[in-house]
Amino acid sequence: MGNDGIHHISSRNDLFQILFSLKTNRKKRAEYGELFVEGIEPIKQAIRGNWTVRRILSPDFEQLSHWAQTLIRMQPQAERIQLAKPLYQELSEKDDPSEIMATVEMKRMRPDEVRLPDNPLILIFDRPSDQGNLGTLIRSANALGVDMVAISGHSADPFDPKTVRASLGAVFHTPIVMVESAEKLEGWLNALKEGCGLQVVGTDSAGDCTLADSGIKRPIALILGNEAKGMSVRLKQYADRMVSIPLCGEVNSLNVACAGSICLWQIQANSLLK
């Protein structure tokens, strides 16, 4: 630690290895309860969402913009770490890194800890494998009024830096929960069905009806399947209904993030009709 209160790193020491592991290793993120955030907008959203900033990283704290200096003053609890430029570049996903990066204390929630409204809109992503798709869906979920995102089974990490960046920081505003098995997911959904009349709707190209004809609206849990395999057989059997999006082009499928966004928009539109 220097006299300026800044921790200086000039070599790949233990602290650098911790920072690198927060960026690259899911188990280490869980172990430290800390996630790595790169990009001005995701950092802004983390702060707006009242997530605790643990560390602020920069290659040169004396050359920061007024915005970055103000942010640092507003986060007095955050450790300041100045890295040699080659090390800072190594931590970045960009050719031209942002002037600051940060690590943020992770918030973990169980489904029963999320306070839902009486007519909730829940998005369930069954075993997502791609961080970009997951982040994009979380971004759409936040924009289209989703009250909670539940991720079931073995999946991409919602707190991976790539997911955070794809979400543009929406991960810091919409509650995200992990549900390890279909059995636990069904148990939780059954309680909501009894409590608020929740309808569970799955998505598939061979659905029972088209999205436009379905009339689906709140209270609802919308299930999206894995990018390659779709919904699991068990969840298809559990769903109250299966809907499809009719396509008119030569390509017979949509990216899951696109399909999910379309479905969420339709649900919101239907829910707002008198």
**C-alpha termini separation:** 62 Å
Q: Structural class per helix/strand content?
A: alpha/beta
Number of strands: 12
Query: What would you report as the Rg, rounded to the nearest angstrom?
Result: 21 Å
User: How are the strands of the largest sheet arranged?
Assistant: 8-7-6-11-9-12-10
Quick recap:
This protein has 274 residues and is an alpha/beta fold.
Strand and helix map with partners:
Layout: E1 7-9, H1 14-24, H2 26-32, E2 34-38, H3 40-48, E3 53-58, H4 66-73, E4 79-83, H5 85-91, E5 101-105, E6 121-126, H6 131-143, E7 148-152, H7 161-166, E8 176-179, H8 182-196, E9 199-203, E10 209-210, H9 211-214, E11 220-224, H10 233-238, E12 241-244, H11 256-272
Parallel strand pairs: 1-4, 3-4, 6-7, 6-11, 7-8, 9-11, 9-12, 10-12
Antiparallel strand pairs: 2-5, 3-5
Helix pairs in contact: 1-2, 6-11
